[in-house]
Design a protein that fits this description.
mainly alpha; 18 helices
């Protein structure tokens, strides 16, 4: 195809960002004006999670997938897992390098690992796919279907497998002052630096001609210590009565341990099944099943090859009315979700006090990692997977989705979870980490979108 001018690519990339910004701004404005109460925001969020988003997924997945295109699910799962893993690794490095508030010591891992994979990417891709250089409704349906795989991985890892428990762990135990956290970090960093320096000196010494003598000395020392421990163990015999008491205690523990373990396993299985049966995940799984079974798919959409089913009186498939209803309700998912995002951002509160009370280094590092380093990683990994044939090089929608999902900020779902687990209904520390990301997002997302379009169509 002809090369698309750079100005066109930039404008195509900016348009969805403008639409996203306006929707978020509406939610932000009515919240600040007192017209969108916390109760109303919770209700809107429940509608999005349990009704509109599952309907949107169903209306897009069923017509988009079939037995030939279902193979794209594997690469999408792989990319989603890689992004979460890389995000967790980056946030762990940040935690080890910069001081983080005690009540956010595990929350930063969640902030790095799980991104906003719902309303933001859905708004962007639906706008992009609806016009050139993409193919309109067909690519729009396919893009949302691909996004649903990321949503499914998100639900499984954060809720079913218990990633959200890290947020709960932040509020276990007594509070620790920021100064004490800084001192602990400084002490730990000094120990690490000392250990590395010691290791470097030892390697340097061993590199000289003393290697054999050092090895012999080390072996002798280990043998002497083992001998001393062995003699000490033999000389210190435990009285028979004490040994029998210990055996009885261990026996009692052995009798109750299986019961306790079974209860814990049952409880974990219950929560995992409950999370797996949530409306979004259930809708995605059911939609995939329907899409790859031709007879079931023909009940909802027309033109399924090799299937002949009597139509409804209007000439449409028998259950087309359900598909139309799902499309109608699902259309409300993106704007309502973005306005709820604006509401959540409007209610975030920064910790009060001087700038010194803010973990500026950690905040900056996480924002750079999520919105600048991660996209670079996303381009490299997706191009690599395309080169080796894991991702179809001719599937521009798949390649765009895989790359674009690398530039997303921290999920606002973490705000709700933090408010629940904090016991105070606040998410103070998280606010300081979220706001810079959502400001930086508009620039980095536009840049990555333009670059990806140039990579695919330039």
């Amino acid at each position: 195809m002809d090369t698309i001018p750079l100005s066109v690519l930039i404008w195509v990339s900016v348009q969805p960002i403008i639409r996203l910004f306006l929707c978020v701004a509406c939610g932000f404005a009515i919240t600040k004006a007192g017209l969108f109460s916390p109760t109303a925001a919770v209700g809107a969020g429940q509608i999005v999670i349990n009704i509109t988003f599952p309907m949107l997924c169903f209306s897009k997945i069923v017509p988009a997938f079939d037995s030939k295109t279902i193979g794209s699910v594997g690469p999408l799962f792989l990319v989603a897992i890689l992004y979460e893993t890389f995000g967790l690794a980056m946030s762990w490095v940040i935690k080890q390098s910069f001081w983080v508030p005690h009540r956010f010591r595990y929350g930063i891992l969640v902030a790095g690992g799980w991104a906003n994979i719902g309303d933001i990417p859905t708004a962007i891709v639906m706008s992009l796919m609806a016009s050139a250089p993409f193919n309109g409704t067909q690519d729009e349906n396919l893009a949302v279907a691909y996004l649903s795989v990321f949503v499914l991985v998100y639900i499984i890892t954060l809720f079913t497998l218990g990633g959200m428990k890290w947020i709960e762990m932040d509020y276990a135990g007594e509070d620790v002052e920021d100064e004490e956290v800084r001192e602990r970090l400084c002490h730990k960093q000094k120990k690490i630096a000392t250990a590395f320096a010691s290791l470097a000196r030892r390697v340097f010494r061993l590199s000289k001609k003393k290697r054999e003598s050092d090895a012999e000395t080390f072996v002798a020392a280990v043998g002497e210590r083992a001998s001393i421990k062995s003699d000490g163990a033999n000389s210190g015999a435990v009285p028979q009565k004490h040994s029998q008491d210990e055996k009885r205690v261990e026996s009692n523990k052995a009798e109750t341990a299986p019961v306790s373990t079974q209860r814990q396993m049952i409880r974990k299985c219950y929560y995992m099944i409950r999370a797996a049966m949530s409306p979004p995940s259930l809708s995605i799984v059911v939609s995939f099943i329907i899409s790859v079974v031709p007879t079931l798919k023909a009940l909802f959409v027309s033109g399924v090859p090799g299937v002949d089913i009597s139509p409804a009186p209007d000439g449409q498939p028998p259950l087309a009315v359900l598909m139309n209803t799902a499309s109608f309700i699902g259309a409300a998912s993106v704007p309502l979700g973005l306005m709820s995002l604006g509401c959540a951002l409007a209610r975030l509160q920064f910790p009060r006090g001087s700038w010194r009370s803010f973990p500026i280094a950690a905040i900056s590092a996480l924002a750079v990692a999520k919105l600048m380093v991660m996209p670079v990683f996303g381009v490299l990994i997706c191009q690599g997977l395309t080169h080796v044939g894991v991702i179809d090089p001719g599937n521009h929608v798949l390649r765009f989705i895989c790359i674009f999902m690398s530039c997303l900020p921290t999920s606002t779902t973490q705000v709700l979870l933090t408010q629940v687990y904090s016991g105070t209904g606040t998410a103070t520390h998280l606010a300081a980490f979220l706001i810079p990301q959502y400001i930086l997002m508009f620039g980095t997302m536009t840049g990555l979108t333009a670059y990806t379009l140039l990579l695919l169509f330039g």
